[in-house]
Amino acid sequence: MGIESKYIWMDGKLVPFADAKVHVLSHTLHYGLGVFEGIRSYPQPDGSGGVFKLDEHLRRLTDSAKMCRMDLPWTQAQLKEGCLETLEANGMADCYIRPIIFFGMGKMGLGARDNPVHCAIAVWDWGKYLGDEGIRNGIRVQTSTFTRHHVNSNLQRAKVIGHYVNSVLARYEAIDNGFDEAIMLDGSGHVAEGTGENLFACRDGVVKTPPVVNILGGITRRTVIDILRHDGVQVHEMQFGRDALYVADEVFLSGTAAEITPVREVDRRTVGTPGAITRRVQQVYQDGVSGKIDWMKPYITGFRPK
């Protein structure tokens, strides 16, 4: 499944896919200081697209830019319009949306300032991030030898491009070792998150998830907590070790790309088939993003693909 589309939004204008280019000396390419978001649009009952948590994602994007001292020439409202314009131009209702903000060409070096700030918004058809089989029956995960960033080593609440080198290396390692995904620990040995997902563990009907300290505060993570509490399930945001995963009744990952992905095995310890809590969260989440639950309704784009 490719990532090609008809148009990409570049600095306020739609340009043909093949013309959406940046210079090889763009500062972000060399040093990784830039920010991005992952957003999804889902088909709605009337055939139009519905973008889930669009405003929340764009707020995090602009917050990330502020934390990285990137002065944006666009407001959050303009970025929102850019996302919607890109969706409509490409005729997509069911797709992934990637806004990315980066420093362009100008000065070079770690102390460089005043390089132009650019923004691109792309959309593409992206299926189940960890596979259809993973969504149905769960995935196998490995505790990574790569440690998640210390809380003071980076801006943990910012979705920064360069942060993901840590995740890429951990994911490569897990796949090379025969697993589907990696679970990353923090500097103290506590469970942090997946390489691009937050994590939940269930035991005796109670759910726990790592606190937003040295993890990205996922928007899907917050939605999962809302779903569970709406159903009267106890949720504790707390630290715990990987041994808690070995004896959990259920483990699942959450993320915009991963959606709700069950875990059936951790470090060759069997968790089992997806349980009742995981299945319930999966169902409510899918119903919500599809516009079937009032308190979870996405932002309706107002156009239907031709």
The helix tally amounts to 8
Q: For the report, how would you describe the main beta sheet?
A: 9 strands, mixed
Helix content: 25-40%
The share of residues in extended strands comes to 25-35%
Spatial separation of the terminal alpha carbons: 20 Å
Summed up:
The chain contains 8 helices and 17 strands. It is α+β, with helices and mostly antiparallel strands and 306 residues long. Helix 6 crosses helix 8.
Would you mind describing this structure in some detail?
The chain is of the alpha+beta class and 306 residues long. It is built from 8 helices and 17 strands. The protein has helices at 27-31, 54-67, 76-90, 132-137, 164-176, 219-230, 243-246, 276-289; strands at residues 7-10, 13-16, 34-36, 39-43, 49-51, 95-103, 117-124, 139-143, 181-185, 191-194, 198-203, 206-209, 235-237, 250-255, 259-266, 269-270, 299-300. The strands form 2 sheets. Strands 8, 9, 10, 11, 12, 13, 14, 15 and 16 form a 9-stranded mixed sheet that branches. Strands 1, 2, 3, 4, 5, 6, 7 and 17 form an 8-stranded antiparallel sheet that branches. A hairpin with a 2-residue loop joins β15 (259-266) and β16. α6 crosses α8. It is globular and about 55 Å long. The relative contact order is 0.16.
